Amino acid sequence: MSMQSLINGSKQFFNETGNIVKFSNRFFVVGTKPGSEFKELLVQCYLIGYKSLPLVGLTGFIMGLVLTMQLRPSLVIYGVESQLPAMVGIAIVREIGPVITALIFAGKIGSSIGAELGSMRVTEQIDAMEVSGINPYKYLVATRILSTTLMLPILSILADAISLFGAYIGVNINSVTSFSLFFTQVFQNLDFYDILPAVIKTFFFGFAIGVIGCYEGFNSKKGTKGVGRAANSAVVLSSVLVFVIDLLAVQLTDLMGFN
Amino acid sequence: MFEKSADKYKDRPRVIVVEHLSKQFGDHVVLDDFNLSVFKEENVVVLGKSGSGKSVLVKCIVSLLKPDLGSIFVLGEDISTLNDEELDALRMKLGFLFQSNALYDSMTVRENLEFPLLRYDKSLQKSEIDARISEALANVGLEHTLNMMPAELSGGMAKRIALARAMILKPEIVFYDEPTAGLDPVTAREIDALILKMKRKYHTSSIIISHDMECVKHTSDRVILLLEGKCYTQGTYQELEQSTDEKVKQFFESEM
Ligand SMILES: Nc1ncnc2c1ncn2[C@@H]1O[C@H](COP(=O)(O)OP(=O)(O)O)[C@@H](O)[C@H]1O
Ligand SMILES: [Mg+2]
After folding, report:
1. Closest atom of ligand 1 to CA, residue B26
2. Which ligand minimizes its atom distance to the CA of B58?
3. How many CB atoms lie within 10 A of CB B90?
């Protein structure tokens, strides 16, 4: 019986994965015809990007500050406290900034897209669009996926910057370092190949979060429970995907010799 | 019986032809070899208990659901052969009033009405759009709601706005899914009157889904009884009212 449920479970998994891949493929067919829903794209960029700024900024700031305060004692033990800005800089830009921003983004935007499209599905608004000759995939889905893909990289670069500012304050709690010295030390140890892969992967994070949020909402089951489930699975699944993509990205940059 | 009841319409062209339509979800057979024709400018009511597959039937006709078997012709076109663009073009000639109204709740009344219009004809001038929107709102007597949000409308008002939106492209065929369900009797009769008004004014043909017998009585030219996935019987309201068949009588006896 457990064997059977294992088989069923994996069948379901591959089915679902196939459906998600098919769903995202439509984006490359439909979503790349520009102009047609440009206004909705701008609205979504505003809602998805601009409106996430305070949250992303706040978490970024705290992250930089806390990371610095946590790292210092270990560095003091080894007598390399002076390396603090360099270490925090690398940690933030290469890993923590993009991943934490993506997770916050998945929580905020993934769930809201899932719930919004889910409730539009169950109240037949998506059907209504379709029968009036409007392609709901183009209007609702493609615009949202494009917005998350474009906005998350911008947000995560901003989060990096704010985070580094937090780190600067963290460094200054115990010792006095000038603003310019701190940033000189940070950027001396960061090169183009630290920054580029970190930025590229955020496009994939953004794409994944948009696709999953839209997929869950678009295929939401009837009833309020269905909407709740859509929002919930959107967050869970896209957060897991962020880690999976992160893992693949680090392997890939390793292979390409960027480390 | 069909020949007799459709007298007035039977020489007209058929705008909808459904043949041998079958649809099931898993093991649950909803429609089973269902047949139906709608003639031009005819109001056909599909009567059936809740859960009998009435909504599934109309959703198959507008291609929101794919039938398992059978063919569906709408305005002369076999909908299963249409590509996405052809289907969208055909759908512009159809209006659909959803049971839940399905007003876009993030948009104002005006935007709800504008939404299909803007995409229907990109060359429309602002003055023409304004005129079409005013006409649509005047038809349902709700000009003052222009800038309201759907959440601010009462049930009857939302139904009227949804009807105005369904009519905004001046469709040839309108589908009404339980147009009076959940409304008080007074409002429900007003909706009946609006359905008749739209037919007179725009010469539409319609499929009206209902189990509100007052609505059926007022709006139908012909009634089709959907039972166990099939067309059990059909005729005018008066013919069915006088039927001695137990299953038909049920609908007239109980206020469902
Ligand atoms: N998308 C769907 N998936 C599975 N079952 C469905 C779906 N849509 C409708 N059904 C089932 O089909 C039957 C008929 O539904 P419906 O046409 O909505 O009934 P009604 O006559 O009240 O409009 C119901 O038993 C419903 O559960
Ligand atoms: Mg129904």
Report:
1. 4
2. 1
3. 19
